[in-house]
């Protein structure tokens, strides 16, 4: 008998886990709260570990990447307080040579590879009850509730995971608040006077505007700011709130981005948190991706770690086919150091995204200038790229 796993969530972590489990000989069933599969999404940098996981999961050939320009070409700009535009180090200039994708590109590649996996939309778990040899789940779909048993439940339902809340306790026990907000959306068109594939960074004390240029797609924008009153941010009109937060930054880039937000068909507006858990599994329930360890967008490692998490879960289960406890131990032991490292470094990266003060802003500027010079020298002397699997589906 093939073992059955309920995977909750059709995001990067859920589909990765489903592929990993299927490769290990299991039958995954995915439930997704939304009525249909989402597409599109914001800019995501995919790091070498994520590309390796994509290769391990067998989806690398389906993954469409959108890196603008070649390495070393000046297509990232920062704008200073006097409105002067200077070549800058962009998000993609980080070590490891990340690939530029939309979140939807990764999800589309995973989707192509889960053909044959049962997916139930508009369905969520309501109760999860552990038995000695199985786990019983009460599922809800529209007006119907029904019970079903599985050998394993995988919570891959994001930062505000229901599986985590039902099995591990309330959100407040696991979500740490970072006193920051984000708004991400797609620009209808690039900021005037910039090339479509240009990236633009305006990182001021407590508020920042990033535009991510892509090779064959309209740029996406990210507004992020620091605030102590998170609850208040969710009241009233979002556009008006963002206009108020960014008022005084009288720059054509900021104006264009804020105007574009009003016309954008959709956007993501949310508070920033990190999920901290002492353990990601108990009995026959395991968490993966943002549900387990959400590092948040500043780390730039959420998608990478979700792919890696799904692949690691599948590999651990394949390695311990008759011992689920040993498999979940191996999953956690193998992955925990990587996750801890990137959860910690996210604090520093937050300073690079959105400095906490004028001093931090000035320091950021010096550090980025230094890093840019070092990188320029390295590129001048070095030949060859990082030893990570190439993605054959690049820049179609
Ligand atoms: C603006 C922004 C920029 C980012 N940039 C980067 C980057 O550069 N690099 C990077 O690696 N990462 C980045 N990330 C993070 C990355 O996008 C996430 O970490 C990753 O997508 C998380 O995937 P996930 O599958 O764990 O969760 P999610 O994407 O949240 O997916 C969870 C799924 O579960 C479903 N669901 C939720 N609740 C239920 C329920 N009760 N029942 C059933 N289904 C449910 C949801 O509808 C959703 O489909 C960024 C994030 C943001 C917001």
Automatic annotation (TrEMBL):
Q: Which residues form the FAD-binding domain?
A: 5-341
The record's listing under SUPFAM superfamilies reads: FAD/NAD(P)-binding domain
Q: Name one GO molecular function term.
A: FAD binding
Name of protein: 2-polyprenyl-6-methoxyphenol hydroxylase-like FAD-dependent oxidoreductase
**Lineage, please?**
Bacteria, Bacillati, Actinomycetota, Actinomycetes, Pseudonocardiales
